Amino acid sequence: MKPVYRSSVACAACRYKHHRCDGQKPACSRCIASARECIYPLSRRRGKQRERQARLASPVMDSESSIRPALQAAPNATDTVSTCCNESINPILLDLYYEFFHAAHPCIIPRVYLDKHLTEDALRLLASVICYIGSLFSESISDELQKNVEVALMEIRTGSRTVTGFDVQAMLLYSIAVYWCNEAEHGTALLDEAIQLGLGLGMNRKEFAVLHGQNSPVLEESWRRTWWLFYVTDAHIAGSTHTFPFRTSNIDITVDLPCEEQEYHSGNIPPAKSIEDYDNREFFADDELLFSSYAELIGLTRGIEHALLPGSTADAQLYKSMCANADTSVRAWHALLPTSKRRLICSDGSVDEVMFKALFIMHTYTVEIHRPLSTLAYSPIEAVSRCAPLAPSEHLQCSDKAASELHTVKCLSAVENLDHLLTLPTNLNAHSPFLICMIANVTIAHLSACRYILQGEKLVTSREKIRLTMGTLKRLSEHWILGKRTYREIGIIAREILSLTARSATVPANTNFPQPDEPLMNFDSSEIPFDLNFDFCAPSDDQFSNLMETIQASS
């Protein structure tokens, strides 16, 4: 009998129809014979496929039917947009978007409602953007999809058609994807443009959701979420580029807060809570006034924004005041979290993605704010990373040793807590790409601790924790080009710091901190050959092995 060979991969169409796929690329034999597009999604074991299928199969709530008037009321798109977007709608790419991108950026209407209206004019640009982002998580990224989006955006800019809230949603999501596809300036410009369009429509006002929701609680919730995603994304870019205050800091926002994710996806939308409700939450018991994970993320971001409003400064007293204010805001926020939010685990056993990101932000900002006042020295090689902040002014160095050590303890505690988050059973590929810069900056601080602070077994343990953060960066870089660049940059920094031979347990007294206005290095990391399989911790293995032998000999 001739042996039967099975392919280890199958295209999306063959999987869907339960056909045996020969796994040929770029297209399998069945797809070629049927003249259909052949797409090989990445492994679905990293997602929750059964849960997603159950959600898609669930009955549509009554509120879905009320979305239709809102969509039909929108002005028709031009023939060009209609043609390109109709061709770009691919259910497999929509699946990938909702599986890998939506949870961390949850503003558009849930999939069960979106499916009913994909061919309607109001959603065509949004559908095209969704498909483009979905293609980033597939093995068949389509340049044509991006061209379709750019054509539609040009029509908006030239006034060829009226801008709708769905167009603003599309531009917001597209700006995130463009930013992390190594076009940071273009992505930032798109975000600025989208914010201005949103302001022009009044999306920052509470009334917008009601006026444009067409009596659909789901659509009203989507509009609320859209402006808050603007705000959070703006904060992410400010954090990634270390530019404060935010673009949206001086904008008057009256939009109500979002509900819980399960309420949104089920269509059972409760009455919305206001910012004023949230600002007075400390006077109510948990069972009296509960806020969603999204609302808690917004609350944390607002607290950090207010603390950092003065912006970058070399004034030691002002910086210490900012640091103390940030500590107060962050600690108060965390202390008021309900127990269920601090646990991060949902009732179905999954990890709350929005709260995961909120806690990630909390620990990242703790490191970034306290490190300039700590003993975690800065190295010139850190300038290689686009995510890394400029080295602080020498005026910020603490003369009080006890105070400096306290800031160091706070940094290392935050590093430890962030490492714990990375060990949770999450789908790494579904995290927001903005976590990339957060991980990069915390890793750099951790490397400084390994170089100057940690000793003995703590140093050995930290080696594995650095490998954990590097591994996470590697996974996130599978889909985001800027993530690949960041992974390479942190690897260069790690090799430089960990391979130094003259180790010291403390920071040298004469450590010179480069000034913020000085160019640290003229270095382009893109010129370095890139190997995702390189072990950046390996150069220091001999040092750690020798250290372990010393520890064992002395015990």
From TrEMBL:
GO molecular function, one term: DNA binding
InterPro entries: XnlR_reg_dom, Zn2-C6_fun-type_DNA-bd_sf, Zn2Cys6_DnaBD
Domain Zn(2)-C6 fungal-type: from-to ranges: 10-40
Coiled-coil intervals: none
Any one Gene Ontology BP term: DNA-templated transcription
Keywords in alphabetical order: DNA-binding, Metal-binding, Nucleus, Transcription, Transcription regulation
Database matches in CDD domains: fungal_TF_MHR, GAL4
Pfam families: Fungal_trans, Zn_clus
PANTHER family: ZN(II)2CYS6 TRANSCRIPTION FACTOR (EUROFUNG) (PTHR47431:SF4), ZN(II)2CYS6 TRANSCRIPTION FACTOR (EUROFUNG)-RELATED (PTHR47431)
Protein name, as recorded: Zn(2)-C6 fungal-type domain-containing protein
Naturally occurring in which organism (per UniProt): Aspergillus glaucus CBS 516.65
